[in-house]
Design a protein that fits this description.
The chain is an all-beta fold. It is built from no helices and eleven strands. Helix content is 0%, strand content 48%. β4 and β5 form a beta hairpin.
Length: 121
């Protein structure tokens, strides 16, 4: 069973917006940081954004800073990635991952199955 489930992807025109959701399945991931990554064919997986359990200190890749916003609702529990002013270069499969803050290497991450985001020019 996949521990995290992404939703909200799809096709959007450049300049548009999408909101991705990452929902925990089977457990709450209490205390875990949540990261968003993305990957395009032939390229390495790229960090996009991250948020701590308490929702403070969000981190963003320079390529999305000012356009994307990460937030979380620990009562659901779900993490959101609001993506505005989308560009064709944002096209990728987006993955969320739950990371134990005591294992910063990421070797203990729990992953979702990924969801496609396509931005047309």
């Amino acid at each position: 069973q996949v521990p995290l489930v992404e939703s909200g992807g799809g096709l959007v025109q450049a300049g548009g917006s999408l909101r991705l959701s990452c929902a925990a399945r089977g457990r709450t991931f209490s205390g875990f940081d949540i990261h968003w990554f993305r990957q395009t064919p032939g390229k390495e997986r790229e960090f996009v954004a991250a948020i701590r359990w308490k929702g403070d200190e969000p981190l963003y890749a320079d390529s999305v800073k000012g356009r994307f916003a990460i937030s979380r609702d620990n009562t659901k529990p779900t993490v959101y990635l609001q993506m505005n002013s989308l560009k064709p270069e944002d096209t990728a499969v987006y993955y969320c991952a739950a990371r134990n803050p005591y294992i910063p290497s990421g070797s203990g991450d729990y992953w979702g199955q990924g969801i496609q985001v396509t931005v047309s020019s």
